[in-house]
Every structure is written in structure tokens, then in C-alpha cells.
Amino acid sequence: MDDFAAFQAYLPFILKGIPVTLLVAFLAMCVAIPVAFILALGRMSPSRSLNMPAGFVIELFRGSSSLVQLFWVFYVLPFFGLELPPLAAGVFVLGVNSGSYMSEIIRAGLNAVPAGQREAALALGFSPQYRFFRIILPQALPLMIPPFSNSMITMLKFTSLVSLVTIQDLTFRANMVASSMGDSSSIYILVILVYFGLSLLLALLGRFLEAIVNKRAGRSISLFGSANPSRIPPWALGRSG
Amino acid sequence: MQSRIDPSGSQTLSPATGMGPALLSMRNVSKSYGDRKILDGIDLDVAPGEKVALIGPSGSGKTTILRLAIGLVEPEEGTIRIDGRYLWHEEDGGRLRRASNKHTRQVRRSVGIVFQQFNLFPHMSALENVREPLVHTIGLPRPEAEKRAAGLLAKVGLADHLTKRPAQLSGGQQQRVAIARSMALQPRVMLFDEVTSALDPELVGEVLKVVRDLAHETDMSMLIVTHEISFAIDIADRVLMFDTGKIIEEGPPSQVLKAPQEPRTRQFLRAILER
Questions:
Q1: Which of A169, A224, B46, B185 can bridge B24 by disulfide, Cβ–Cβ 3.0-4.6 Å?
Q2: Which residue of B has its CA nearest to A230?
Q3: What is the pLDDT of residue B94?
Q4: Calpha distance B252→B240 (Å, rounded)
Q5: Which CATH number belongs to the domain containing residue A175 in this structure?
Q6: B36 in helix, strand or coil?
Q7: Nearest 5°: CA angle at B214, between B209 and B218?
Q8: φ, ψ for residue A68 (rounded to 5)?
Q9: Cα–Cα distance between B265 and B56 in angstroms, integer?
Q10: A239 occurs within a structural domain
Q11: pLDDT tens digit string along B95-132?
Q12: Domain span holding position A13
């Protein structure tokens, strides 16, 4: 089988795209998380000069195609004198795009913490930093992790867009091989399986993080079991000491 | 602690004792939510050590008085002073201007509050709930803060539950942790906002007992919003009856609760007692 031999020959070339894909996803996530927090806090601010620009960025990036955003940054910005290398352009667009979606997750999570928590913290004289990082955030994080992990998985697959700005990721390499081989089906099956495997790993990582933040928030879940931690306190079950 | 001299010169005398400056003083305070006026031009003075019970139908403004007294909400009109210091204002050459958040935080520290819904921090143990304000608000070294927190929890009968999270405690136990927590900063004024309303009837007694002991043992001033009439009779020096944002009757419990003058007060008390 000629095709199979060719496939085997090209396999290492394609798989070399995996670290590139992972690198883009990782860097974009490093951009997305701080961007998401800044946008969320900006949007929640009572000050118009903060919440208006934050809202604008969020709606701009959620409301237009990521591919067009990438082309804009890579092909149009150079006309305005800003030339970014492909990796920087890809990481920037994926990061801010994903950060815009994630900012709404953060906003929802922070708003879900009961108002009484903020009031108690205020009444006890805690500083604004303490109130945010030690009272509100630890209670909001467990709510944010599952949708965060959704965002991570979505973004991992969106990294394939960077193949269109010359980055040699998994998709880029697959496309190259496919166009030089007659039969592309086996290559695209392989690519799907690789993305699927990577997503599965990310999903597991998400469950792992979820277990950690839940544990710190006073709830426990198992890595593979029900995602709903039991809210029934032990004393209600007659296990109190 | 020495009480400060009132800088404005207009010292308010407490109606209960007729002597000494009031520890908590509200002048012409109004508060609205939207176009609903919750409090309408309230004047209130609470003397050091005085225990004041606030009664009245829901929506009459009694909870809002407590939230104003600790600065969780800001009044549209009027001034609030704690121990002579303005909560929301700073004096600037004889005139009042809006104080910084830091100033408000500083003044608020003399006031403690216990909420109806406890509002314990669910991600911290009972001990941590009481310890954290000692460490972070007044900067006590951790071992000392821990010792003091354990002492406060022992005082409310929870010496055996230090490491438990709120979810592992009963409602009555949670509320007692909350009382210990609000005591941690040694406030001079304590506010109790219907602290037994969210409890199973079975657990009300243990919490009332703790509040009653506190009232009898300490010289803190207390403002207590409650529907427990016999409790109010027992601990209050003065009772305020609220209706539609105003204090419509006030006096010692023997008068307001046992022989009310106002028809509205009589009607309200009858309704609660017949429950």
C-alpha cells in the first residue's frame, strides 16, 4: 500500500505540530486569564470610564469572527505600522478573544457569591484586597472552573486558525501533507483524533482544578464522579461528632 | 478607651442616662431605595452601655438603621457619629466634607454586627472566621489571634468545634460563631439584626442565651432588632417602635411593650403575640 507507506513517512512531520499547537494554546491561555479578570473587573466597576471601554472590548471580540480578527491583526495592522510576528499575532487574538468570553464567566461567578459575604467582610474592616482575594474569589472560583475548562477546550481547537498565518501547527502540517498526497481522509482522521486526545487531557486538567478549588472552598468531589458536590452537611446526616 | 470630645461642640445627651455623650448618634438621617423612603429624618442617640431594642413591621426601617450604623449603606441626608467621629464625613475647617473610604473603615471598626443569615465565610473553619479579623484588621500576630479566637469561641460554647467549617455546624452553632466573630474586634456598639429569625425554633434558645449573657456581662452598647418580645423585655433599657420609616413610640420596655400608648404599637404587638 503506497498510501499507507506515505502516511507513515509523513507521520512524524505531522506530529511535530502537536507541541506547536500546545504552545499556542498555552500562551494564549496565559494572555486570556489576566485579560479576562481585567475586563470583568472593568465591566463591574461603577465608574463609566472603566466599564464602557471594558464592555466595548468584550463585545468587539465576542461579536466578530476570530478568523477576521486574526487577519486584521496579522495583515491589516502592518499598514498602520504595527507588525507582529505570526506567533504574537495568533496568541494575542486567541488570548483576547477567549479572555472576552471568560470575563463574562468571571463576572457571573463573582456575582453569584451572596451579598452577605461582602457585607460581613466590610463590617469586619477587611481591606478591599483582602475582601476580593480571600473572601469573594475563593467562593467564586469553584463556580468558574467548569466553564473555564470549556473555554480552554474551545480555544485549543481555535488554535488551528493560526495555521492561516503561517504557523506550522498540527493543522498547518496536516494541510501540507494532505495537499501533497492523493487521499487526505486518513490524515484528517488522525488530526481529529489528536485534537480529541488533547481536549480530553484538558478536560481532565479541568476536573483536577475543580477538585482542588472545591476542596479549598470546603467541598469535595471525586475526579471522575458526579460533578455535583454534596451540599448536605454532615450534621444533617447524623455524623456530627 | 476614652471617649472623644465631640469636635462640633453640640454634644448630644443620651435620653436614657441623661449624661455623657452618646456613643452612637444619628441626626436627621434619611435613606431611600429607589423612590421608596425607608427612613425619614431619624434622630437617635445611644448611650455607652445602653441596650436598645428595635421593633416594628418588616419594611419599617429597623434593619436599615443597623446597616446605616455600621456604614454598609450611606444615608442621603443627615450625619452619623460613632464615639464622636463622623462615619461618612471628615471635618475640614469647621465644615463637613465626604470622608475617604479609609476613614469610614476606621470609624466602622468600633461597631460590630451579627446578621440574620450568619454570613460566616464558608471556606474557613470556625476558628479562622474569628481569627482573620484579628490578624488582618488589627494586625495581631497569628498565634495570639488564634488564642484569642479560641477563647471567644469557648465563651459561646463552641470550644469543641474550632476546626469545623460552617457547613458542618448547626444554624445555632453558626450564629454563635458569628457572634464570637463580631466580638473579636471588641466593638463598642454591637448590632443584632433578627439573629434568631433564620433558626429552627429548637435552636433559638441557645443563641438568645448567648446574646443575653453578653448584654448582662459587657458594657457594650447594643441595638437589637428582634421579634422576641420577652427577650426584649428582659435585656432592653429602651424600646423603639418603628413604622413607615419613623420612630413612632419609644420608652422603657415596661411602657412600650407592656402598656403601649400608640394604637399602631398595640396592633403590632397583638399581632406578634397571637402568632
A1: B46
A2: B167
A3: 81
A4: 9
A5: 1.10.3720.10
A6: strand
A7: 160
A8: -65, -40
A9: 8
A10: no
A11: 888 999 889 999 999 999 999 999 999 999 999 999 99
A12: 2-229
